[in-house]
Design a protein that fits this description.
Elements lengths: L1 H9 L2 H12 L3 E5 L7 H18 L5 E4 L3 H9 L10 E4 L12 H11 L3 E2 L10 H7 L3 H10 L4 E5 L1 E2 H7 L4 H9 L2 E5 L2 E4 L4 E4 L7 H4 L4 E5 L6 H9 L5 E5 H10 L1
Parallel strand pairs: 1-11, 2-3, 2-5, 3-4, 5-10, 10-11
Antiparallel strand pairs: 6-7, 7-8, 8-9
Helix pairs in contact: 2-12, 3-4, 4-5, 11-12
The protein binds 6-O-phosphono-beta-D-fructofuranose.
Length: 259
């Protein structure tokens, strides 16, 4: 840990963090050395860093919501066994069936809950449902219970992706992809697609934690790195839904060229 602090200092990452914080207009930025796109080990470092921050804000009875993806997975992996028993509840913010099971919010919630000695809830809902189906699903007692817990979360940890990459990964129909492109969608987070200014261009129908709900979540933590994601990270910050950003050097330098 001392060596890490030394490298952080040496690379001037403290200055970059405060510059980014001001330029992005958010509360806190944490930057790890390297670029996740160059070296997969950096994603683990990113995860550990986010987990370290998380430790400072977690309460014994926190409700933690999280999204899926390879980066948030590393946050759960990077968390040490913090408590053997606690009242912490971890809930997936998205259903996300259809993606690799390892990277689904459900799976990540179970990993993190174990590290925190808490419990988890599952949201067994596919990603690509129609609006009407979602409306009736929300009335199902099991799902209703998860959604109610979700809305009481005090911490949200979420990933940020590029709009084009996520549209592809989610197999969105061609007409929606065309729509996203026409409207210059750059980012995807929490099921929402944002443009450069952070305006919502498109919302996935299967959203249970809405942007409206986020106003009541005390800690909004985005974890995302890699040079190629810089624009997506900026867009999501501009949407006003990020308080703390944990990112890497690769994304940071690129972000500073944009903002
Ligand atoms: O699908 C869940 C999700 O968190 C998306 O909202 C986000 O765009 C993506 O994963 C990030 O995935 P990764 O960290 O693997 O790039």
């Amino acid at each position: 840990e001392n060596l890490k602090d030394f490298i952080h200092e040496l690379k001037g990452l403290n200055n970059i963090e405060s510059l980014l914080k001001d330029k992005l207009g958010i509360e806190k930025v944490i930057v790890v050395p390297g670029d996740v796109e160059q070296d997969p080990m950096i994603k683990k470092e990113l995860g550990k860093s986010a987990a370290n921050y998380l430790k400072t804000i977690i309460n014994y009875d926190s409700i933690i919501a999280l999204t899926g993806g390879s980066t948030v997975l590393e946050v759960a992996n990077g968390m040490p066994q913090l408590y053997s028993k606690s009242n912490i509840v971890v809930v997936p913010a998205r259903g996300g069936l259809g993606r690799e099971v390892e990277k689904q919010a459900n799976t990540i919630a179970s990993i993190l809950a174990k590290k925190l000695g808490g419990t988890y809830k599952m949201l067994h809902v596919p990603d690509n449902l129609g609006k009407e189906t979602v409306k009736s699903l929300i009335k199902e007692p099991d799902i209703k219970d998860v959604v109610e817990t979700l809305k009481k979360a005090d911490i949200l940890i979420f990933g940020i992706g590029r709009a084009d990459v996520m549209a592809e990964r989610r197999n969105l129909p061609q007409d929606i992809r065309d729509f996203l492109e026409k409207n210059n969608a750059t980012a995807e987070a929490l099921g929402y697609y944002f443009d450069k200014e952070g305006k919502v261009v498109y919302a996935t129908p299967s959203i249970f934690l809405t942007l409206e709900d986020l106003k009541f979540v005390k800690n909004l933590i985005a974890v995302s790195g890699g040079k190629g994601k810089a624009e997506a990270i900026v867009s999501t910050c501009r949407s006003g839904n990020v308080q703390v950003l944990v990112t890497d050097e690769g994304a940071s330098f690129e972000i500073l060229k944009i903002v």
